[in-house]
Structure formats: structure tokens, C-alpha cells
């Protein structure tokens, strides 16, 4: 995951652009997406992904996941470099709960 490292006008422009990105929607159970990159900004609590289908703002409920996925990757793979990788997404609309599993190259178990 990459944190926003810009400051000043560049940071403001980037975050304004992110607010305009379409929100990522899970259209079917176990939706597979190739993640190219994941970004977050702790100050604004914005998170967004780059994937083969474009760049998408993540729902607010996934910000904590976006912040912790790097720790999970480090624990599983021994390093932070997990992107690009495949992921599977699920959303229970009744509870508002999201499930995201990431499959780094060379690993058969998701996290």
C-alpha cells in the first residue's frame, strides 16, 4: 500500500480527484479483481485502488482494511510488495460487511 506523500497544492488536487473517482462496487459474490495498487490517506480516511478496470475509491467501510493490508502482507510474505495480485471481494448488504481476500503471486492461501 502506498500512502499519499504529496504536500500542498499537489496533495489537495490528488485528494480532490480521488473524491471524484467512482466508488468501487461489488456486483457479484466472490468478485475477482486484479489489484495493481492500493493507496490511502490517513488524514482524510480516503482509500482507493488501481485495477485493470480503472481507478476506484473504496467505500469508507474498507479504509481500515486498506490501512492493515500491508501488515498482513508482511506477515504472510515477509515483504510489503504484494501488488499486482488477484483479489476476491464480497459484500453482505444486509450487514454492510465486506470481505476481501488477496492472493499474492506464489501463495495459494489468501489473506
Task: Give the tags.
2 helices; 111 residues; 6-stranded mixed sheet; alpha+beta; single chain
Question: Main beta sheet, described?
Answer: 6 strands, mixed
Structural class computed from helices and strand pairing: alpha+beta
How far do the termini sit from each other? 15 Å
Low-confidence stretches: none
Query: What overall form do the CA principal axes indicate?
Result: globular
What value does the Rg take, in angstroms? Answer: 14 Å
Order of helices and strands: EHEEEHEE
Mean pLDDT figure: 85
Fraction of residues in helices?
25-40%
Structural notes for this entry:
The protein is an alpha+beta fold and 111 residues long. The chain is globular and about 40 Å long. The two termini are 15 Å apart. Strands 1, 2, 3, 4, 5 and 6 form a 6-stranded mixed β-sheet that branches. Helices cover 25% and strands 34% of the residues. A hairpin with a 4-residue loop joins strand 5 and strand 6.
Short note summarizing the structure:
The protein is α+β, with helices and mostly antiparallel strands. The chain has 2 helices and 6 strands; from the N terminus they run E-H-E-E-E-H-E-E. Strands 1, 2, 3, 4, 5 and 6 form a 6-stranded mixed beta sheet that branches.
Write the layout of secondary structure elements.
Blueprint: E1 2-3, H1 8-20, E2 31-41, E3 46-51, E4 54-57, H2 63-77, E5 85-92, E6 97-103
Parallel strand pairs: 1-2
Antiparallel strand pairs: 2-3, 2-5, 3-4, 5-6
